[in-house]
Design brief:
This protein is mainly alpha-helical. About 85% of the residues lie in helices and about 0% in strands. The protein is globular and about 65 Å long.
Length: about 450
Amino acid sequence: MQKKRFDIIMLIVLLGYFIILVDTSLVFTCSNEIGNSFKMNTQMASWISNAYALTFGSLLLLGGRLGDIFGRKQIFIIGLIIFGVSSLSVGLAPTGILLILFRAIQGIGVAIIAPAKLAIIMDNYTGPQQSHEIAVYGMMSGVGVSIGLILGAGITTIASWRWGFLINVPLSLLLIVLTIKYIPVTQHQPAKIDWIGTILSFIAVVLIINGINGIGPKTISLVVGIILLTLFIFYESRIQSPILPLVIFKSRIRNTAFLNRFIYTGAINSFWFFTPRILQTNYHLTPILVGLSFLPMTIVNFYSAEKVDILARKYGNLAVMTCGIGTTIFGFGCLIFLRPESNYWLMVALPMILIGFGQGLVLSPVTNLGVSGLASNVAGAGSSMINIMLQLGGVTALAILSVVSASYSTLPTFHVQAIGIVLFAIVSFLISIGALRKVK
């Protein structure tokens, strides 16, 4: 009976993660269709993603800290309610402006759900079992995006992009019921909410994300955001109940995980974003075929992610992560040589298999390294940092590669983007090698 309860807890966590990943992938594949529905120009359509990224990224610290203070179960349910209601609103949105507003509210829900689900694992599992469940959680990251691309493309082709958001409603209701029944109530940890730190971090992250990929004077936005972030860190070091306990940065290995989460996510998210476009442009694939073209990568990703726990116990998470990053570099590198006349199976499918295999070896270990060993009262903050690095890394890399490659024609543009993706992955690899050498 006890094992069944633990299995259901893990099912709740994975399903909560899955609906977020599918929602993100849906926007990747359906942004053109959504924009066309409301006759949005390119700049306005970009805010379908930007509005979500701004609220998600800037409120993650608060979401994680609320779970630490008021209990994971209660906060998780609140996040699911916000996510479910906002998904319904997005699916029924009558105008583009309202859709963007509801996407921003969706980001608030996800900022609460994301750190809570990982912290739930840490609350309910210990020792090797905890490491195993975190590995399974990490596996969902790669597999979920792949499946999300396929589902998003299929829903758009068969019905409408609206159904991709509306499907979140019954799934959110199911998760709320399961959470009420099976997730145990954690003890409250009475503490004041650090509202000054919350406001500073919120404004800082909003300005940084806007400075990377937003509107107005971006350089000023980025500089002011960095100044406020520095002020925020100084303030957090001086108070008793910070929204971001700096103790989570005392581990060199954990800092390596945070940094790699940022840089490697930049590489892999850019791959997810740019590759579907080149498949449509160069190989003239329909959205559903683009989604299906990622299936071999998904299968290989699932296989390697399933084995990663065994490998990590034998060689260590850091070594496995380093090996995975190295493998994906080869896969990314093959895409640099893509030509209009290139054979799809040799120049696209084969590199995808390498990328999928490598990604499966990275995402679980980097998550494990980022949160393992954290005390319960800072588990939410650690989980938030993993998600913040993911969010900022993806936004940063996409913005940089989009700007650098903007002046090129279609295929050369992808070559420039592929080179950039490889460079991000190489930096991540070198950071891992450096940490590995210090450990040995």
